[in-house]
Design goal:
Helix content is 81%, strand content 0%. It is an all-alpha fold. The termini are far apart.
């Protein structure tokens, strides 16, 4: 028989699955209502912001209200980021099929992988840090993805395996979790990486600052502070 704690864990897990599915539905609705071009960037930012606050700080406000609030926050910045990533991916994919030699195709495949890494991390960077400016946010996302390459590979493998299982045995569920699964995987990675960066920064501040300056040094930590903006 299950203990009370066991039932609570199952309930917590199922509530998490519900949130992921609901975020996925909201992402699809916002993207479609924004005619893709005007919706995909802000919707991706909203999902990343909600998951960041949930995974790192345990905050679980009502999903719809929080999603709409994040969607409106920095709407044009996140929309512009979506435009840039979409245009870059479209150009690279076109070059892959139009390239006349395998070397050019290989180079464009590598470029597509780089764009994928940026797309995976740039919205969490926008949501969880105070890095400003699209070029800096893109650079920070690439550094985060490459700097934690082992976690990126693990997350990509987990997402690929889960998508394959759903495609093979429960295809309708892929519609409900197609965006939520990779977003959750990236959320786990950024939780680990941002947590390590915050711990390292706090340790450095403790070692290099006088006792009376410890609080202010920790307050100046920019990365992984977790601002919902």
């Amino acid at each position: 028989m299950f203990s009370f704690e066991g039932f609570m864990r199952i309930n917590l897990f199922l509530r998490g699955v519900y949130r992921i599915a609901f975020l996925n539905v909201l992402w699809i609705a916002a993207t479609v209502l924004g005619l893709v071009v005007f919706g995909i960037g802000p919707a991706s930012y909203a999902v990343a912001a909600y998951i960041d606050r949930w995974f790192r700080f345990g905050e679980t406000p009502p999903v719809t209200r929080a999603f709409i609030g994040h969607f409106r926050t920095h709407y044009w910045r996140s929309a512009a980021m979506g435009w840039i990533l979409t245009a870059a991916a479209a150009i690279v994919i076109t070059n892959i099929f139009a390239a006349s030699t395998w070397l050019l195709q290989f180079g464009n495949v590598v470029a597509l992988v780089v764009i994928g890494i940026i797309a995976a991390y740039v919205f969490p960077v926008m949501a969880a840090t105070d890095v400003r400016g699209i070029p800096r946010q893109i650079a920070a996302a690439l550094m985060l993805g490459i700097g934690s390459l082992h976690w990126t590979i693990v997350a990509a493998a987990a997402v690929a395996a889960t998508v394959w299982l759903l495609t093979s045995f429960a295809l309708p569920l892929l519609v409900m979790f197609g965006i939520g699964i990779p977003a959750a995987a990236i959320g786990f990675v950024t939780r680990i990486v941002f947590g390590q960066l915050a711990a390292d920064a706090a340790a450095t501040a403790t070692q290099t600052s006088p006792p009376r300056a410890r609080v202010t040094a920790q307050a100046r930590l920019h990365l992984a502070r977790g601002t919902s903006e």
